[in-house]
Amino acid sequence: MRVLVAEDEKELNRLITRRLEDEHYAVDSVYDGTSALDYLNSADYDIAVLDIMMPGLDGISVVKQYRQAGGAAPVLFLTARDSVSDRVTGLDSGADDYLVKPFSFQELLARLRALVRRKNENRKSTLELADLCVDLYSRKVTRGGKEIDLSSKEFSILEYLMMNEGRVLERESIRTHVWSWDYDGESNVVDVYIRFLRKKIDDGFEKKLIHTVRGAGYMIKDDEP
Question: Which pTM value belongs to this model?
């Protein structure tokens, strides 16, 4: 899952980001509303956590403009304002949930999980291709009945490929979905992890599922008619 965190209190921003990364989310973090809207409009986020009172644009203005532009990612507001009228205003602006500061990180994580479940309630919990099976909730992967142990990043890439079965995904699309915008590691990180995945998913099997599309990117598909 890819998350945007927009919170102008830098220490709180860092804490939220760290906790989400510990839960295997890919996180982008910004400190003002203008940047938040730019990020939301330029990437495909699974969820956004926004402070209401931010420099540039306030969170309510961000959500209104994002929704008007067709943005559909669930939004959770963080705010020190706890009156009923404030909550109503926040929800009516297009937000999906509202959490008052100070808050428990356990509650934040639980609310995010609930929003993700709500968003994905029509999505299959298990993805299958040939004899490959990916359980999105237990994060269990099997092929030919044999369980395959994947790292967090390997699972995220495989999930993204499986959700886009038969579609070519550019390297940059995979990178920005699995890693945050500010990732400054090796430029070939996607190729490296695809090699890791192939060793675990395809090696030892006659039918290869992960394919390279020269000059374009990668895709997962079953070659059988």
Answer: 0.63
